[in-house]
From TrEMBL:
The keyword Transport does not apply. It comes from the Bacteria. Its cofactor is Zn(2+). Transmembrane segments: none annotated. It comes from Tropicimonas omnivorans. PROSITE patterns: ADH_ZINC. This is NAD(P)-dependent alcohol dehydrogenase. InterPro entries: ADH-like_C, ADH-like_N, ADH_Zn_CS, ER, GroES-like_sf, NAD(P)-bd_dom_sf, SDH-like.
Length: 347
């Protein structure tokens, strides 16, 4: 038994003792969790009890964006030892699966992903995790930054799917945490400029503070007009849809240049219509993103090299004992909040 943040059912969280699985296999590491980010998906399970066909039917530990310290390693683990500071990739595929063999383990149908029912998350002092999905952090990268690698990996996967070329102009529709991560990954991936569009000015102010990012408040300026003006009517090389909002999805073709790419990152709650002829008339390349695969090393390398600074996106840090308050604040969805993190005591 260990203390854990448990989603008992829709709308009901408790911080209580819970039977946390702790068998250390030969290829596993035991990690003392230090920082966990609160993700939109955790919050959605809390407020709605389900995401699509993933339904919370029994109590589940929340949390999947984590960093910590290795306590113990299994008999066959090489390259990690007690005391190493690490972050963990929350999705564990079946490593013998067809998808894993193809290198696309993020879409392995049998992937076990933290805090996706019925799999427990990591908001508890210790977890056991495969060493193969546990990554060392450079000494100067904090646990807080380590816990940001998970959402940043989605931005990285989006940039990868876009096949950015040096000097590309990109647009990101939606300035939520994933939109911001995508914008920063696109810049790191070689974009000359990234335009981020949203209707919440406080969010735009946060992401607009980064060099290389311009913002468009769509309450004041229609995004298509702004992009046309910025590109002399040609359009953006890459459009990242990160809002999941139906009107934004319908308007995608207008933002892209002929022969450009559209990357669908945001997840609409309901099926959303697309302007197929609009896509065809410019022969746009359509890409989709689901989590990430083989990204963590690169994401950590960029953060470690100082090419990407995610610290300004950490809005508040609450202690583990106030986890429920952290979730209730995340539910408020303040426009000045990007990422809320929970810190566990140094064991
Ligand atoms: Zn997440």
């Amino acid at each position: 038994m260990a203390e854990a943040l448990v989603l008992e059912e829709k709308g009901k969280l408790s911080l209580r003792d819970f039977p946390v699985p702790d068998d250390l296999g030969a290829g596993d590491v035991r990690v003392a969790i230090r920082t966990v980010g609160v993700c939109g998906s955790d919050v959605h399970y809390y407020t709605h009890g389900k995401i699509g066909h993933f339904v919370v039917n029994e109590p589940m530990i929340l949390g999947h964006e984590a960093a910590g310290v290795v306590l113990e390693v299994g008999a066959q683990v090489e390259g990690l030892k007690a005391g190493d500071r690490v972050c963990m990739e929350p999705g564990i595929p079946d490593q013998t699966s067809r998808a894993a063999k193809l290198g696309i383990y993020n879409v392995d149908p049998s992937v076990q992903f933290w805090a996706t029912p019925p799999v427990h998350g990591c908001l508890t002092p210790e977890i056991v995790h495969p060493a193969a999905f546990t990554y060392k952090l450079p000494d100067h990268v904090t646990f807080a930054e380590g816990a940001m690698v998970e959402p940043f990996a989605i931005g990285m996967q989006s940039a990868l799917r876009a096949r950015i070329q040096p000097g590309d102009i990109a647009v990101v529709t939606g300035a939520g945490p994933i939109g911001m991560m995508t914008a920063l990954a696109a810049l790191a991936g070689g974009c000359a400029k990234v335009y981020v569009a949203d209707l919440a000015q406080p969010k735009l102010d946060i992401i607009g503070a980064y060099d290389g990012i311009e913002t468009i408040n769509i309450r004041e300026t229609p995004v298509a007009g702004a992009i046309a003006e910025a590109t002399e009517g040609w359009g953006a090389d890459v459009v990242f849809e990160c809002s999941g909002a139906a009107p934004a999805i319908l308007g995608l073709p207008a933002l892209a240049r002929p022969g450009g790419a559209v990357v669908l990152v945001g997840m609409p709650v309901e099926p959303a219509p697309m302007d197929i002829v609009g896509l065809q008339a410019k022969e746009l390349r359509l890409e989709t993103v689901f989590r990430y695969a083989n990204i963590y090393d690169r994401a950590i390398a960029l953060i470690g090299a100082g090419k990407v600074d995610l610290k300004p996106l950490i809005s508040a840090t609450l202690p583990f004992k106030d986890s429920i308050a952290a979730f209730d604040r995340a539910v408020e969805a303040r426009e000045t909040d990007v990422k809320i993190q929970i810190e566990l005591p140094d064991a």
